[in-house]
Write a structure and sequence with these properties.
Strand order of the largest sheet: 1-2-5-6
Helix content: 10-25%
Organism: Kribbella qitaiheensis
Number of domains: 1
Shape: globular
Number of strands: 6
Protein name: ATP/GTP-binding protein
Length: 99
């Protein structure tokens, strides 16, 4: 029996191959920089995440937003990463309060 082929890690795949599911995307300017914000519907949310605003879990099937800097950080740029590697999942209300 031959070994199974392993799928490449998502961290080694090009960013263009990483889907961002559901919702609309827009750019927001805040005092701490420019951010890309994508609304995620409950039906597109299948994993639990930790919100950086309130440090509570965002449970699966909960509508929320995914936020990442419009321009990658210096460390991400040096390491060859993209700003999508810096995305964070927020409760919608927590992101709206974050100023």
């Amino acid at each position: 029996m031959s070994p199974r082929k392993r799928r490449p890690s998502k961290h080694t795949r090009p960013v263009s191959d990483r889907p961002l599911m559901g919702g609309t995307q827009l750019r927001e300017s805040r005092p701490d920089g420019d951010w890309m914000v994508r609304q995620v519907t409950g039906s597109a949310s299948t994993k639990a995440y930790r919100c950086p605003g309130c440090d509570q879990q965002i449970l699966p099937a909960t509508p929320h937003v995914v936020v990442w800097p419009e321009n990658p950080s210096l460390l991400a740029a040096i390491g060859g990463g993209q700003s999508l590697d810096e995305r964070r999942h927020w409760h919608t209300a927590c992101w709206q309060r974050h100023r």
